[in-house]
Amino acid sequence: MKSGSKALKERSQSPAGATYIQTPNKMAKTNIIVKEGVQTDYTSIIVSYSNGIDSTGALYWALKEFPKKKIYLLYCDTGFEYPENIQLFYQTAKFLGIKPVLLQHPKGFLNLLLEERLKWPDMKNRWCTAYLKTGITDKWIRANRQILGSKCLFISGERRDESKGRAKLPEIEYHSTTLWTKRKGDFTCHWYRPCLDYEKGKMFEQGRELHLEPHFCYEYLGRCSCMACMFMSDRHAIENMKRYPDQIYPFIQAEIKLSHTWKKGKSLETLWNQCHDIDDVENNFDEYKQLTIYDYPEVTS
Q: 182-185: long-range contacts at Cβ-Cβ below 8 A with a sequence spacing of 24 or more?
């Protein structure tokens, strides 16, 4: 990180410079609307960034409205992301001249799955988001009020047309890190979603204005998410398995060990064994050997 990094609390640095944060399952939403709307006197701006196009739209808005010296670009590495993402994140922050904040849960997705959660996340229990994104972000903000100042704006890039749930999100609400009394200090945090009513194409335009290339996954996916997100289609998960077999196979072994599938009625193991379609087989069948999950070493918790 850049200036102010010595003031960070409750952290231990990984070799990659990430802040490891242990956190309970707590969401940051309050559903308490900021009646005054977005204001101009924020002491700091945090942009939640995924390398995806929607968060690029949120970043575009922040850069147009506030000076760069106030902006923190925050990326949460869940442990199930594209291996290129961290480097892309740092490159973006450096190119734009804003402060990067990389957060990681100390256990990451795989160990949380194997040791604590024991089941894959689903629509009713999205523990991946609660533990690996909003929870660690919440705690980092609480630990760093001193450098953030008394009034912070947290920005994210959700759009209403992504899902029924996101269609109901408020444009601006109080963030859960807000201190409602002065007993612990003076700190207000608003959560603003500037892209709710934007079309996806608008975000690509804004990315081009910032001279940022879209994430490479958009070449074959419609959404930049974890490599095998539960919302991902089967064919897209298979495509990522073909591209990143070494990164994904430990999660398939975990699925087998837990006897709980990635999606209801659909296992990653099944998709893995579909990766080598008949069209991929060369004429010399005797030399061809299909790679299965059992060709890889077993994952232990």
A: 185/145
Give the whole-angstrom CA distance, residue 27 versus residue 130.
6
Q: Per CATH, which fold does 5-218 belong to?
A: Rossmann fold (3.40.50)
Q: Residue 278: pLDDT above 60? A: no
Query: Which pLDDT score is estimated for 225?
Result: 93
What is this structure's pTM? 0.83
Boundaries of every domain in the chain = 5-218, 234-295
CB-based contacts of 205: which residues, under 8 Å, 6+ apart?
none
pLDDT for 13: 37
Q: CB–CB of 56/157 below 8 Å?
A: yes
Residue 18 pLDDT > 70, yes or no? no
From residue 280, give the alpha-carbon distance in Å to each of 62, 118, 236: 46, 35, 17
